[in-house]
Design a protein that fits this description.
By secondary structure, this protein is mainly α. The protein has helices at 2-5, 22-33, 38-43, 53-69, 99-104, 107-131, 151-182, 205-208, and strands at 73-81, 84-91. The chain has a two-stranded antiparallel ribbon with strand order 1-2.
């Protein structure tokens, strides 16, 4: 439908369009960490400072609903509080799927999982950049490259990425065990690994029409 394909400004929406408002970025980051309601979000100090709590709740609830409608979060529980219904939200996508599980999913569901997972990563990265933690350490790592490969190249890179993530997961578990007994400083860290087929390159004008001046 047109309303879903284009923004109010008439520009085509993207996978990150639901995160256009900074409050939604914060909501998605928090909800992906643990379930929370709009009022809980406010009570935890995540919402903008607004003297009138009812106005704050109205604002926060609006953005929670917008993320729900965009398929980023979902209501996982409700409870009655002083005659009102409190909606508790959680992240939608599972963190891990085996290769066999993922291959059996319909393409539409795979797309939805990719979208919600990526939106969660974008929300976390955006918050880290805005708060300054992203560049707090000079040895932080950020690298990506567009390339063209054959099937063998695709398979080799896929296997390297898969092995890298498995090693990172083992490192996380080892660190968790050490921290449980060492009392050392806990360093919050986000590690992300991506590898995907790129969209086709846009045709250059001389590819489309050799006669064009």
């Amino acid at each position: 439908m047109k309303g879903k394909e284009q923004s109010k400004e008439g520009t085509k929406s993207t996978i990150c369009s639901p995160l256009a408002h900074p409050l939604r970025v914060r909501i998605l980051e928090v909800v992906n960490e643990y379930p929370i309601s709009p009022v809980g979000f406010i009570d935890a100090g995540f919402a903008p400072a607004i003297d009138d709590k009812q106005k704050a709740l109205s604002l926060v609830s609006y953005h929670f609903r917008a993320l729900e409608q965009a398929g980023c979060i979902e209501i996982i529980a409700t409870r009655q509080v002083r005659g009102a219904t409190e909606h508790i939200y959680g992240g939608i996508s599972r963190v891990y799927f085996s290769d066999e599980e993922f291959e059996k999913l319909p393409r539409k569901q795979r797309k939805q999982l990719s979208q919600t997972s990526f939106q969660g990563l974008v929300a976390r990265t955006d918050t880290a950049i805005r708060t300054g933690t992203f560049d707090a350490r000079t040895d932080r790592y950020l690298a990506w490259r567009a390339m063209e490969v054959d099937q063998r190249g695709w398979n080799e890179i896929h296997d390297r990425i898969d092995q890298c993530f498995k090693e990172c997961e083992q490192i996380r578990k080892d660190a968790e065990d050490r921290l449980a007994v060492s009392g050392d400083e806990v360093i919050p860290m986000t590690a992300a690994v991506l590898g995907f087929e790129s969209p086709p390159r846009p045709a250059l004008w001389h590819d489309e029409d050799e006669s064009r001046p």
